[in-house]
Design a protein that fits this description.
Blueprint lengths: L1 E5 L3 H12 L3 E5 L10 H7 L5 E4 L5 H13 L5 E4 L5 H12 L4 E8 L4 H4 L2 E5 L2 H14 L5 E5 L3 H29 L6 H7 L9 H13 L15 H11 L5 H13 L5 H14 L9
Parallel strand pairs: 1-2, 1-3, 3-4, 4-5, 6-7
Antiparallel strand pairs: 5-6
Helix pairs in contact: 7-10, 7-11, 8-9
Length: 291
């Protein structure tokens, strides 16, 4: 199948390789790297109608700008796919804007990271049945066996991926807290070894645990080569916002997001307030700030 891939970063580049390896005709555009096209207009002209464009660019302004430019270039019957981590509300709006011009819009949640080239990508597609069915050869090539589903209408793909990433936050935080308890214990524990044996037969075995085992190998037994600063890309926040709107309690995902916030502080002002209050009401000692 023919496809125009827009964005050749860590994900888009490897997805292009996987599709090409599977026999698909992939034309590309990325202003930052060598591509088959030097502009979106040129990419359009390289594709046969009805065209399929796949945006694999960061969520936010660049996705919006790319989508709006494609709306002006595409023709009725063409399909625009957003494979980034866009907010599902934005995807629903883009679906409406595209539909007004007779253009299809499909939102696809993509999970797999840098390992997707060989292992495949889990794909969660949202949109109407006709364009999703037409694009299915692409989805089946990108996904491992049983790793793709058309999960619902417009926005459903990015909604499911949003919750997927919220769950990911909670799982990562559980591992993080558990391994900190191990690291602080009175025992001289080999955390690399423990992560290794937990991969086999343990009820907490998972791909994330395999990645942690690999991280200990690369970053040191105490992860001494890296700083404990953890960003978030938005999906955890959006999951919590939707949970509040739906009156669903999500204490684990919420705590995991707040732990990421805490990781970015050199020193917590809230902790200073607590220390000052304990000193005021109970005379508890405080530690002086370092110059």
């Amino acid at each position: 199948m023919q496809l125009g891939m827009i964005g050749l970063g860590r994900m888009g580049g490897n997805m292009t390789k996987r599709l090409t390896r599977d026999g698909h005709d992939v034309r590309t555009y990325d202003p930052g790297v060598d591509s088959t096209a030097s502009s979106l207009a040129e990419l359009r002209d390289m594709l046969d109608a009805p065209r399929a464009f796949w945006m694999m660019v960061p969520a936010g302004k660049i996705t919006e700008d790319t989508f709006q430019e494609l709306l002006q270039l595409a023709e009725a019957g063409d399909a625009i796919v957003d494979g980034g981590n866009s907010n599902f509300r934005d995807s629903q709006r883009r679906h409406r804007e595209a539909a007004a011009k007779g253009i299809h819009f499909v939102d696809v949640g993509v999970s797999g990271g840098i390992w997707g080239l060989e292992a495949g990508y889990c794909l969660m597609a949202g949109g109407e049945s006709e364009p999703v069915s037409r694009l299915e050869p692409i989805f089946l090539s990108l996904a491992p066996e049983d790793g793709y589903a058309h999960v619902g209408g417009a926005g459903a793909g990015h909604f499911v991926k949003m919750v997927h990433n919220g769950i990911e936050y909670g799982l990562m935080q559980a591992y993080a807290e558990g391994f900190e308890v191990l690291e602080k214990s009175e025992f001289d524990l080999d955390l690399h070894e423990i992560a290794g044996i937990w991969r086999y037969g343990s009820v907490v075995r998972s791909w994330l645990l395999e990645l942690l085992y690999a991280a200990f190998e690369v970053e040191g037994a105490k992860l001494e080569k890296i700083k404990g600063y953890v960003e978030d890309s938005g999906e955890g926040r959006w999951t919590i916002e939707e949970a509040i709107a739906e009156d669903v309690p999500v204490p684990v995902i919420s705590a995991a997001l707040f732990a990421r916030f805490a990781s970015r502080q050199d020193e917590s002002f809230a902790a200073k307030v607590s220390a000052a209050l304990r000193n005021q009401f109970g005379g508890h000692a405080v530690k002086a700030a370092e110059d």
